[in-house]
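Onboarding guide, step 5: your first structure request.
Type a short instruction followed by the sequence, for example:

Predict the 3D structure of this protein.
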Amino acid sequence: MSAHRFLNATFTPVRPAGRVLHQAPLRWRALIAALVLAVGVPGHTQESAPPALGALVQALGRIENPEAQANILRGMNASLKGQRGATVPSGWPALYEKLKASPSEEVREQAQALAAAFGGGAALDGLRKTLADAHAKPEARLAALDSLLAAKDAPTLPVLLDLVKAPGPLRTAALRGLAAFDDARIPAQILAVYPTVDAAEKQDALGSLLARAASARALLAAIDAKTLDRAAITAPLARQLQGLRDAAIEAWLAKIWGDVRATTEDTQKQIATFKKFLTTDSILRANAARGRGHFQQACALCHSMFGEGAKVGPELPGSFEDVDYLLQNIVDPNATIGKDYQQAFVETKDGRILTGILATDDASGVTLKTLAGPATVPRADIKSVEVSPNSLMPAGLLNALDEDGVRDLFLYLRQRQQVPPPAPR
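The system replies with structure tokens like these:
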């Protein structure tokens, strides 16, 4: 059912958006606000209808219930997520002054986020103060950071550089957020804290370093200087480095990593080598718990299994007993690939490269499923989008494991339910 028909069927007869929102149950108001922004105000022609934002602002002006206000603001913010500089609707400045004084903290926060989407300097100042305030609630600081990043607020960078220095609930978001900025201080700061962050934060740190060729070169220089372990560059990250299309990086990959994409002849030789030690008996004598650890390190960046891992690639159900099938798909992931899992590269106008799988691509922008989570890029910021014929999953995943490690992983992939984690070493 289209959004217009949904609204018409839910609220009959069709009324102006303000009246519909005012009379709708609270649980529907955020949805209605999002739909109105997406499709316009039902029951009006393009020539006679007030702008959708203006209609919602009028509705907010007539509603005094803070819970209802929060619901509508939440829906408006959700619909404008990833957009910057939206046209400020008539009546918003006066309404914002009213909402800033609301007794509801959520109303105040949602209104501030919406003002930031409209490019309001005062709102951005307030969000920066909230983000830098160590005594503010973590959820309020995270919401402020999200709005500032959506606004590409340059003065936020120094705060992010400070936030990554110490453990805390904001360090993960700050490490991810640094990818949005092109600044020479970023790689040095990330590399300085890298040894002290946990495993999940390391992935966020690497994701930001690999967003641009300059910071990626700094990462590789740290590996060459042996201040960073070469093992940090997993096969998925090697594929991401390849996507930067930088001559120096490609030369480093060829010298240190090897060919990221093996030839067909080489692939068949590799598969034959693996099959020599991957007999059914030898796999069944392996260690499934250690295999779970190998899965978490090599596979869980993209795949989930038994509820653990990321959802970039397809979820794995376990029960994989066909060794030939596993080898063909792991050693040569490009042999058979569905278009839903082809690697995509999005280059932004400020030089950032995002790599992942296309989740959405429409007039408003592009959303990628990346190793660091979903990433949305507004259409106005995009320089180019290229879909590769190759899978996001790179060849060479098994090369980092010895024979026992490969057997352990294959035994884990045979499981029908979760096994205990590996014992700490």
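Each response can be followed by summary notes, for example: The first helix runs from residue 3 to 10.
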